[in-house]
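Work Package 4 report. The design task specified in the project plan requires that, given a folded chain encoded as structure tokens, an amino acid be chosen for each position. We show below one input record used in the internal validation round.
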């Protein structure tokens, strides 16, 4: 029988074959994972609709495959395989050289090891047996860093993974390819400009510290992000055009009065932006629960197409890593993206009842990139002024729920 790429979702006509989960000659059972396919929205695991033996893998890893395109040829019970297409026959894979001295870890079967497709591919290229690598990720997942550590920990190793002057070539595939395409599209379409403003986050830090104690009793991990999301909504209601997307074909601006905010999440395979929907309808604690759940699913590669649909604006957060501010790239076709950066302590001059004095305050910067075709500089400045007011006076957010 011939297996062709099934429908992947509404409006999705193709996907990149990231990894085969089976090999030629292997016997598979019904509903067993056959491969991983990445679309513009998510990485999807394709299950087998049959039980039988794989005779030929027609599509190749890294290839962009159209819906209904031939993927593989198999022989099922009571049926014979269709004649393979010679033009599509895959080149034989080179047998990787085994490392001379693998790290001293008790081996397990490699197929049972938790690791991403990118990590498995790197292991094949470097000749590393994943079963002999100790994983430091969640639930023992093997990370790319663990591969480097296994090489440097080998007896006789100099502690370096590569010879000085050598060049490592990595194909632009999977998540990195989608990020590359999306960023290039954004830069080609939108006329970027970035506006930066500073904020006194002292009151926000105090409020979050008090709320964190209550959240912990409810089993909730409370970060600053729910407060930022609510402040965004409050400011967007007063400056609605920033919560817009562009319909290039119709040459129309779509101003949204629903607040679906994409949240950038860094995963092992790259940056992904799932959507937190109807932020205006949810409490701080509800948002905290949802953010934690979405981030967990993103890092476990459990996001679905639904998680990426309907975004109206994006929040990117690099504050946990550091840096004062950045110039984020707009998540096209949106017209704005807000960057939340680190909060730090510094001495500032404050005015109390007409008297100036020096005080230690919690400080931060927000950087916002906008599409100058749609948003003028003055409009961006007014939005940021309103947004900062909510950050500096977070108690005002309570009025938004009344």
């Amino acid at each position: 029988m011939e297996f062709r790429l099934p429908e992947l979702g509404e409006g999705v006509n193709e996907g990149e074959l990231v990894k085969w989960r089976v090999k030629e000659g292997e016997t598979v059972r019904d509903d067993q994972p056959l491969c991983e396919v990445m679309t513009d929205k998510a990485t999807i695991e394709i299950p087998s609709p049959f039980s039988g033996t794989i005779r030929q893998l027609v599509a190749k890893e890294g290839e962009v495959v159209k819906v209904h395109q031939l993927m593989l040829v198999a022989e099922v019970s009571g049926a014979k395989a269709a004649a393979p297409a010679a033009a599509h026959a895959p080149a034989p894979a080179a047998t990787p050289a085994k490392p001379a001295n693998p790290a001293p870890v008790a081996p397990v079967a490699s197929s049972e090891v938790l690791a991403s497709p990118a990590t498995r591919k790197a292991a094949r290229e470097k000749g590393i047996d994943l079963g002999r690598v100790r994983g430091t990720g969640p639930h023992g997942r093997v990370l790319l860093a663990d591969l480097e550590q296994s090489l440097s920990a080998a007896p006789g190793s100099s502690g370096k993974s590569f010879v000085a002057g050598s060049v490592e070539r990595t194909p632009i595939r999977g998540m990195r390819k989608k990020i590359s395409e999306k960023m290039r599209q954004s830069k080609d379409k939108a006329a970027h400009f970035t506006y930066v403003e500073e904020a006194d986050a002292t009151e926000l830090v105090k409020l979050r510290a008090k709320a964190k104690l209550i959240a912990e009793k409810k089993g909730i991990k409370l970060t600053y992000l729910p407060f930022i999301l609510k402040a965004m909504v409050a400011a967007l209601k007063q400056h609605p055009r920033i919560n817009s997307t562009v319909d290039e074909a119709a040459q129309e601006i779509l101003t949204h009065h629903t607040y679906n905010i994409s949240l950038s999440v860094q995963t092992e395979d790259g940056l992904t932006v799932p959507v937190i929907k109807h932020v205006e309808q949810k409490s701080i604690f509800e948002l905290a629960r949802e953010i934690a759940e979405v981030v967990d699913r993103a890092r476990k590669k459990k996001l679905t197409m639904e998680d990426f649909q309907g975004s109206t604006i994006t929040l990117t957060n690099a504050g946990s890593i550091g840096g004062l501010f950045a110039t984020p790239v707009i998540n096209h076709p949106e017209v704005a993206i807000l960057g939340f950066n680190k909060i730090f302590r510094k001495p500032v001059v404050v005015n109390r009842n007409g008297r100036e004095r020096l005080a230690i305050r919690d400080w931060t910067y927000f950087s916002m990139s906008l599409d100058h075709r749609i948003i003028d500089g003055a409009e961006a400045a007014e939005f940021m002024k309103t947004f900062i007011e909510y950050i500096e006076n977070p108690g005002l957010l309570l009025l938004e729920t009344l």
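Helices lie at 117-126, 144-152, 174-189, 202-217, 225-238, 284-299, 377-392. Validation will be extended to a larger panel in the next phase.
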